[in-house]
Amino acid sequence: MDGSSANTTEVPANSHHSTTNIVALYSCVFVYAVVAVLVLLGNGMVIVSFCWRATLRTNTNFFIVSLSVADGFVGIVSVPWWIYITLAVHNGEIWIT
Questions:
Q1: Where are the alpha helices (DSSP H) in the chain?
Q2: Number of structural domains, the chain?
């Protein structure tokens, strides 16, 4: 062997990203962020209206509220995590094979 470590990996420099790729990346991140906010607002309105109005507390609406809670967790956990993964892959921090 030539004395170099076999377990080294070179991370490519970020200078090769074109301006159009960066604009597309931040456009996607912006859209994801808007979707996350809309998910939280929409599901929050469903949950709040269910809690405030006694007439909305039917068996069917209990199911709808449980779906809103589950979808709210998607907006809280999954979408921000996807934004992080998108940015990390673009910056070369995560390698997807």
A1: 19-52, 59-73, 79-90
A2: 1
Residue 32: per-residue pLDDT: 93
Closest CA to 47 of 29, 31, 24, 66: 66
Alpha-carbon 97 to chain mean position: 20
Task: Indicate whether 27 pLDDT > 60.
Answer: yes
Closest CA to 71 of 33, 31, 36: 36
Closest CA to 22 of 95, 96, 86: 86
Is position 11 within any domain?
no
- Whether 35 maps to a domain, the answer reads yes
Name the token pair of 55. 């007439």
For 45-62, write each residue's pLDDT tens digit.
999 999 999 999 999 999
* pTM for this entry: 0.69
Q: What is the mean pLDDT of the chain?
A: 83
Task: Work out the angle at residue 24's Cα, subtended by the Cα atoms of residues 19 and 30, and round it to the nearest 5 degrees.
Answer: 125
